[in-house]
Amino acid sequence: MLSSMTERFSYHERVGHVRSHLGLSQTVMAERVGLSLRAYQNYERGEREIPVILVQALYQAFQIDPVWLLTGEGSMIAAAEARKCLDQPLLDRVVAAVEQFESGLKKPLSVEHKSRLIGLLYEKSQLLTEVVGQQLSTAKMRSLLKLVA
After folding, report:
1. Does one domain contain both 75 and 91?
2. Is the dihedral of CA 83, 85, 86, 88 positive or negative?
3. In the predicted model, what is the mean pLDDT of residues 48-71?
4. 56 Cβ partners below 8 Å, 6+ apart?
5. Distance CA 59, CA 6 (A)
6. Is 50 found in the same domain as 20?
7. In which region does residue 131 sit, left (phi positive, over 0), alpha (psi from -120 to 50) or beta (all else)?
8. What is residue 130's predicted lDDT score, i.e. its pLDDT?
9. What is each CA distance from 74 to 67, 89, 137, in whole angstroms?
């Protein structure tokens, strides 16, 4: 399975693996995800932390599973069922809440920690919507982040 071959690599190396798998040059890949060539190269080489916006761009452009990209777990390509169920506006709110929370910290979160917080908040928000019919407010997201971070 593809994931077992790549889970031992860092997420930076998985970004390069995606590009190779798609048969794209770094220039074309940078254009497709809306980055300068230099910025993209820095992410692929591991010289800079990969921002959430790149994870989102890879998902939107190529259906690259964010969990696989960050952890190596699962499949590189997101399952069709997951793509149909993704609530993009909710994910955008969750990412914004986590990034706002992170901006108040003395030290930035690791990408792995940040992705786990985003996943946790997204999951809890979806569950609340299904069970109670309400969305998790931004203030409640901030309160939860203080508890789990």
Report:
1. no
2. positive
3. 86
4. 66, 91, 95
5. 18
6. yes
7. alpha
8. 64
9. 7, 24, 30
Question: What are 63-121's pLDDT values in tens digits?
Answer: 888 888 888 888 888 776 555 567 778 888 888 888 888 888 888 888 878 887 888 78
Name the domain boundary from 25, 49, 79.
Answer: 79
Rounded Cα distance between 119 and 100, Å, is: 16
pTM > 0.85? no
The two three-digit tokens of residue 8, written as one number: 């031992």
CATH number reported for the structural domain that contains residue 75 in this entry:
1.10.260.40
The domain of 117 spans 87-148
Size (the chain), residues:
149
CA 86 to chain centre: 13
Q: Which residues contact 70 (CB under 8 A, 6 or more apart)?
A: 11, 55, 111, 112, 115
Nearest C-alpha neighbor of 96 from the set 47, 60, 53, 54? 53
Same-domain pairing of 71 and 108 = no
> Residue 74 region, left (φ>0) first, then alpha (ψ -120 to 50), else beta?
left
